[in-house]
Design goal:
Blueprint (H helix, E strand, L loop, with lengths): L1 H9 L5 E10 L4 E13 L3 E3 L1 H11 L2 H21 L6 E5 L2 H4 L4 H12 L6 E6 H6 L1 H13 L3 E7 L8 H4 L4 E4 L1 H4 L6 H17 L2 E5 L4 H10 L3 E3 L9 H7 L4
Parallel strand pairs: 2-4, 4-5, 5-6, 6-7, 7-8, 8-9
Antiparallel strand pairs: 1-2, 1-9, 2-3
Helix pairs in contact: 3-5, 5-7
Bound molecules: guanosine-5'-monophosphate (2 copies), manganese (II) ion (MN) and sodium ion.
Protein name: EAL domain-containing protein
Organism: Amphritea pacifica
Length: 253
């Protein structure tokens, strides 16, 4: 399979880049964070979306190298941006299921933060529900370790995984990200309205932050504000953009 070899070389040959998608406070449109999104530019194949290579990387074990590259790059960037005088918001990083279950994540994150002198409050890790259900007790241990380091923890694609809700009360989570599939057909789809409303109510009553993903329209924005969701991420505000464009959105200290 062609991609595997190419993927193996991609890190060394610096073919990955990170884009940053702003996360917005719906009350004043200020930027409260950003999600780091990986892009792969292969000289032969062109730009390959993560939906095509992340699954391959997970199957072949290369995902740990990719996740580590992302963590290093984000921490390096944060430190550099701060040196340049930017007011840097929290950056969210996607951690793959396979890497999360590996028992080495927390130690690895600690070493990377230390190496780049990056403060843990500026990092959020996004994991999916499936990751937790794979091995709830191990996930719990790993999350606790990360939380004790001051890292924030979010459940990505919330509502799409096969999971029990009981983990929400036992695990040290900070935020739920409402999956974009529940947002995209608002306001037309009454079922999606109901599901989004329920997730927001659940998060708010459990003391978790909630952010809507994939917000594209003013109507969606209105609906979510009215239901008590304070934060959003989506094309209505910005897609993921290269580092220099992201920096132009930040204020200087
Ligand atoms: O950016 P885009 O919508 O194409 O991302 C598609 C999928 O790839 C999403 O599910 C997203 O979580 C995942 N993804 C994007 N960037 C990263 C990354 O840096 N690491 C991992 N593990 N997954 C990522
Ligand atoms: O699974 P995850 O939530 O990490 O995936 C995030 C993906 O969603 C990114 O690849 C990003 O490009 C995509 N995305 C972000 N905002 C929007 C949006 O408003 N509309 C659509 N269709 N996709 C979006
Ligand atoms: Mn994500
Ligand atoms: Na998501």
């Amino acid at each position: 399979f062609l991609m595997v070899g190419a993927l193996r070389n991609a890190i060394e040959n610096q073919q990955f880049v990170l884009h940053y998608q702003p996360q917005i406070d719906l009350r004043d449109n200020s930027i409260i964070g950003a999600e780091a999104l990986i892009r792969w530019n292969d000289p032969q194949m062109g730009t390959i979306p993560p939906s095509r290579f992340i699954p391959v990387a997970e199957k072949t074990g290369m995902i740990q190298n990719i996740d580590r590259w992302v963590l290093n790059t984000v921490c390096h960037n944060i430190h550099q941006w701060q040196q340049q005088g930017y007011r840097v918001p929290r950056i969210s990083i996607n951690i793959s299921a396979r890497h999360f279950g590996s028992n080495i994540l927390a130690d690895e994150v600690a070493a990377i933060l230390d190496h780049h002198q990056c403060s843990s409050e500026l990092i959020e890790l996004e994991i999916t529900e499936g990751v937790i259900m794979n091995n709830p007790s191990r996930a719990g241990k790993e999350l606790k370790q990360l939380r004790e380091m001051g890292i924030r923890l979010a459940i990505d694609d919330f509502g799409t995984g096969y999971s029990s809700l009981s983990y929400l009360k036992t695990l040290p989570l900070d935020r739920l990200k409402i999956d974009q599939s529940f947002i995209s057909d608002i306001p037309e789809d009454k079922n999606d309205q109901a599901i989004s409303r329920a997730i927001i109510a659940l998060a708010n009553s459990l003391g978790l932050e909630v952010i809507a993903e994939g917000m594209e329209t003013e109507q969606q924005r209105q609906f979510l504000i009215e239901e008590g969701c304070l934060y959003a991420q989506g094309f209505l505000f910005s897609k993921g953009v290269p580092e220099h464009s992201f920096l132009s959105l930040l204020k200087k200290v």
